[in-house]
Amino acid sequence: MADDEFHYSSGFGNEFVTEAVAGALPAGRNSPQRAPLGLYAEQLSGTAFTQPRAVNRRTWVYRILPSAKHPSFRRIENKQLSGTPFDELEPDPNRLRWDPLPLPAENNPKDFIDGLFTLGGNGDSKTRDGMAIHLYAANQSMVDRYFVDSDGELLFVPEFGALILHTELGPLRVDPGEVAVVPRGIRFRVELPEADSGYAVARGYVCENFGAAFTLPERGPIGANGLANERDFLSPHAAFEERNHQVQVVNKFGGNLWAADYDHSPLDVVAWHGSYVPYKYDSANFMVIGTISFDHPDPSIFTVLTSPSDSQGLANVDFVVFAPRWLVGEDTFRPPWFHRNIMSEYMGLVAGQYDAKAEGFVPGGGSLHNTYASHGPDADTYARASAQELTPQKLDGTLAFMFESRWTILPTAQAMSAPFRQRDYDDVWSGLQRNFR
Ligand SMILES: [Fe+2]
Fold first, then answer.
1. pLDDT, tens only, 40-75
2. 5 membership: H or E segment, kind and range
3. How far is the centre of ligand 1, averaged over its atoms, from the C-alpha of 175 (Å)?
4. pLDDT for position 359
5. pTM (2 decimals)?
6. 296 catalytically annotated
7. 398 CA distance to ligand 1 centroid (A)?
8. Which pairs from 3-10 meet CB under 8 Å and 24+ separation?
9. 213 pLDDT exceeds 90?
10. Does the annotation place 369 within a ligand binding site?
11. Torsions phi, psi of 23, nearest 5?
12. Residue of 134, 237, 264, 296 marked active site
């Protein structure tokens, strides 16, 4: 299905109203004595009941069966997925970089759940703090299998191949260049639409956010418009599945996978209204702000979404995009400068080339620069950018992104021992010469 076959409502933090069958939503109250059409009414809370209105999120769903109807969950194998605490290894101060996660072979079917590979993370999902970084590479749709993350919300950043996220609140199609968020506790299955090759395959990145839900950053003196605009966030319309055969629901809870066999699809919501919703966003709509004189602002100017902490301005995790843009700074070293940062930075690349790295950082790959790791442009980039004529320049066809966290991001043992980790990453900077006269 192409994206124009899906239906969306636009806005961020809105109260949406949608029904797949006319008359399924009760009028005037949330929980009437008998809900319309023989449906069950159920509230899904994304925040504590008593949190302030500005952040309070909840959705009322009207479903064929209440979600309480299911047998016990049992532990299943985590495979390459892991959760907090990320304490398998001693924290390592080195700069780290990886090639892309290999795609599964055609004769090795992997759905989205089995295709997840945890790179690292921080915090504690049990106290709703911190984040994890997962990669995925999959070649099978989830057919009679569903996923729910009780630990965190999931931010999907596809790099290769589209995803159709069939969620309890309706379907979303997410193509590379777009991102999507499925809130904590919302069940979904991932369909991989067939590529032109006739073979479905998908790869990308997932940020699992254990902290406060992603929201839009404040704009301060930027004003009422710019960066990611509210109207460009799209949420699905209600849609439901009626399945009467056995399906598996996989629940990530406390860092581990649990599964239960349901006798019906958990995607049986016929109508809903509320503000706790999955959404997607096309990074092409990001209004990029940068210098029109000299120097460039800190990369926080590229923040799309932020998970705030209790300290103002200190993010549990930020999602930042380095989108196509013009570089016009006069007497300015235009690529990202050398720096050391108290925050920890994981960078990925969806398309093209990143302006601080001439080579080695490829789409699907990623780098991790933890607390105070010294980083910046490689030697080739430094030489080029120091000598170039400073005419207006368009950075085109590129999309890099960053998950930036206040806590050190601790890699998993499998990420450190992965054959696709670049052992020679430090060499990127070895060619930098003394120019002091
Ligand atoms: Fe950085």
1. 999 999 999 999 999 999 999 999 999 999 999 999
2. none
3. 26
4. 76
5. 0.97
6. yes
7. 17
8. 3/173, 3/175, 6/171, 6/172, 6/173, 6/236, 7/170, 7/236, 7/237, 8/172, 8/234, 8/235, 8/236, 8/237, 8/280, 9/234, 9/235, 9/237, 10/231, 10/232, 10/233, 10/234, 10/235
9. yes
10. no
11. 90, 0
12. 296
CA of 177 to the centre of ligand 1 (A): 21
Map out the domains of the chain with their CATH numbers: 2-283 (2.60.120.10), 286-424 (2.60.120.10)
Amino acid making up residue 147:
F
**Longest Cα separation, the chain:** 84
Task: Give the rounded distance of the alpha carbon of 308 from its chain centre.
Answer: 16
Give the number of other CB atoms < 10 A from CB of residue 198: 6
DSSP character string of 328-351: --TT---SPPPB--SSEEEEEEEE
d(CA 172, CA 282): 12
**Phi and psi dihedrals of 381, rounded to 5?**
-65, -40
DSSP at 412: P
Q: How sure is the predictor about 195, in pLDDT bands with cuts at 50, 70 and 90?
A: low
Q: Known binder of ligand: residue 205?
A: no
Alpha carbon 261 to its chain's center: 28
- Distance from the CA of 121 to the center of ligand 1, in angstroms? 17
Contacts of 102 (CB under 8 A, 6+ apart): 137, 420
In the predicted model, what is the mean pLDDT of residues 352-367? 85
Name the residue among 238, 265, 268 with its Cα closest to residue 20. 238
Q: What would the pLDDT profile of 104-131 be if each residue is shown by its tens digit?
A: 998 999 999 999 999 999 999 999 999 9
Q: Pick from 276, 283, 307, 269: which is nearest to 130 by CA?
A: 307
